[in-house]
Specification:
Double Stranded RNA Binding Domain; six-stranded mixed beta sheet; 4 helices; 173 residues
Length: 173
Amino acid sequence: MRWVKPGVDFSRYDKVMLDSVVFFFADDSEYKGMDPHELKELADIFNRHLVTALQGKYPIAAEPGPDVVRIRFAITDLKQSRPVLSGVTSVIPVGLGISLLKKGATDSWSGSGATGAEVMVLDSLTNEVIAVARDERTAGFTERFSKWGSAEEAFKFWADRVKLFMDQVHGVQ
């Protein structure tokens, strides 16, 4: 889901200012705590994906300006994968796996992680909200075998989407 303020000329923004990402666990997540080092590592991975996606075309700005768009990300509904359970659903007989494997009904694998994101885009000078979006990602088959694989894959997806949006508003093919 996304909303873009009518009449905003996004092509005037060619630099990006990034706020620190904020994390929220899903209400139904079995895992509610996180080591501060692990949280910093996830935030660094998220930031690295954004910077990598934007580098070379859209410089990261430290200060507001007329050509700077400000982006705030909140990672929401964070659920870590449970690799042992995910692995079990891959090797047990199909008949037994039906009750463990939730793919189809919920679009996720048993024991797989999930991640949501909410993003707010602001004009960096006025702090006027010019766009908002919300998305959710669940772990694919291979991402579910690492603790935060679903989150890392989601981070890369969203970083690529930010770049794609910037490319589109600048007419880049």
